[in-house]
Fold:
Amino acid sequence: MAIEIKRKAPYAHTVCEIVKARWGTAAHLVFLTFCFLTNIIVTAMLLLGGSAVVNALTGVNIYAASFLIPLGVIVYTLAGGLKATFLASYIHSVIVHVVLVIFVYLVYAASSELGSPTIIYDRLLEVASKSRVCQEPLSHDGQSCGPVSGNYKGSYLTMLSSGGFVFGIINIAGNFGTVFVDNGYWVSAIAARPSSTHKGYLLGGLVWFAVPFSLATSLGLGALALDLPITASEASHGLVPPATAIALMGKGGSILLLTMLFMAVTSAGSSELIAVSSLCTYDIYRTYINPDATGKQILRVSRGVIFGFGCFMGLLAAILNKAGVSLGWMYLATGVFIGSAVLPIAFMLLWRKANAIGAILGATIGCILGIITWLSVASVEYGRVDLYTTGRNAPMLAGNLVSIISSGTIHAVCSFLWPQNYDWDTTKQITMVEKEKSDLSVEEFKEEKLIKAKAWIVKWGIGLTIVIVILWPLLSLAAGRFSKGYFTFWAIITIAWGTIGSAVIIILPITESWKTIQSVLIGMFTNDHLMEKIEELNSKLHTIILAIPEAERVYLMEKEKAKKKDESEPDGLIVPA
Structure:
């Protein structure tokens, strides 16, 4: 999709600008609403999870944490904008991955309580054992006791899980929404250099996967193996990793986890602030208020939006915490609210026939149908509609699927009946505020180069998707309940993926930018390099003058002329009365 933007709207700032250029004002307002809703939901998830963990680890009031977390993000985002976001994202990613590797090795190699795949395997078997005493009173509230409902042979050591399968579908539907409808991803795609976009996104996806995969296999399974007293509500609020970290490392674990959390939340939060700022400045201010806005005016509005949205999200997070909304509930419901905008946005860049009326009807009707289905299933299945029943798997699954599928169907039918047959001329006419300041060469936007990049990413993207999404799960399903050897192999893959991914995300950016970093460091800490260059230049000039005596005389004459001209200029500037 990033390559398609480079081909069809090379100077766009946001995805909604492309919507307006292709489908007009009505569609623009509809998708602008969905984009804002996405940013609000994603930021709410960050703050809900972050404030709950900060409260659990430090005792800081959860409402105070809801406001304190965005504060640091607002400061450096206001100061540096998108460049600060990129720099902060790298620094934060380094810290997150270093802590990730520490936790993975702690659970599977270094801990005195766990420390090996064999011990974890035996303890997971024991936790789900039929012989375990599960009658009241339990040893602790939230005790993991007995076979797991919906899992093959009641075991945690399997991929054959009905609950896991349902969660996977909900997760895919919701994440399509948070990628396609989140302007933060589009801003990054637009800012990326076309020649490196395709490889960068593929590598980034593989590195990102290391985080949930490694953390779930280490701290997630570690909590079960240690039989920690974590209730379902606490798990829904994201408190499993901190509980495991504290159990294994004490205060040190809580500090590491808190650091990791803060880095992840603030990095993602900065991206969301930039996304909302871009929508407000380019899609509202520049489009409807001041079409001739200058760069300084855009910057001023952008900073005001960043500050205002940061404060608003702190307030919203406090309200959601008061209402009892958890990170888990919000995460599962994401696709219900924004999934209906996914396929219309994809069609916008990929399908010539996709029309405006189909996009508007698909997005709005799909969302309404998704919400109705979600609430109806909760009412029918559980007899009431509240946070608990709407957060269950069946209502969430139905709502997510109806939202995303119905919108795509409506848009496709309308487009086949009344095709637009668009050629992307108007999207190519989108202009930058200060186009002359773009540092990308024309070579970067050549069609043949972008087509080649697209072919590369289609080949490798589809190939890796088949391996990770289809082949890997199928091979794991065939294993049934994992044997000790299979689980050990799984743990080795986890350790390797987390370690290699972390090494790549830390080392590769430094390697690629080493010359620039070197120049900056030389400029910051010493002027010896500059003086060497000046002395070298003086030496060359001296050699030339010695070789051509006439050159020195000409130089001195020109110097004298320039001096006389400078002395005469003030007199020439006097205007007679």
Q: What stands out?
A: Residues 11 and 435 are 8 Å apart (CA to CA).
